[in-house]
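Comment thread on ticket #2218

A.B. wrote:
> Attaching the input chain for the structure job we discussed in standup.
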Amino acid sequence: MVPLVGIVFGNVIGGITSYLAYKYEMTQALSSWLVGHFSLVLKGRYEIVWLTVPLVILAFLFANHFNIVGLGRDFSQNLGVPYNLVLFSGLTLSAMITAIDYMKI
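C.D. wrote:
> Ran it. Output below, let me know if you need it in another format.
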């Protein structure tokens, strides 16, 4: 249920931003902003990219727990996985990994 709500919410926000971009003739700026890029990563300023390595490793180690939580609260509690803790930590990890690309150095 959580991924479906996220997809619906993301599409609503995407529609609103596309409308505003068309209205103010900013579609090119919007498309370049929405695509992940490393254009700000220059020689000697790439250290921020290395922050993703431990986060991706951590997400990989807990991938099984994230899959169990994706099956529902009751199922995860029957297997002994703390549902709220794993759900919150998974959302936090994915948000941090995604946000690192958009950080301005």
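A.B. wrote:
> Thanks. Noting for the ticket: The longest helix spans residues 2-23.
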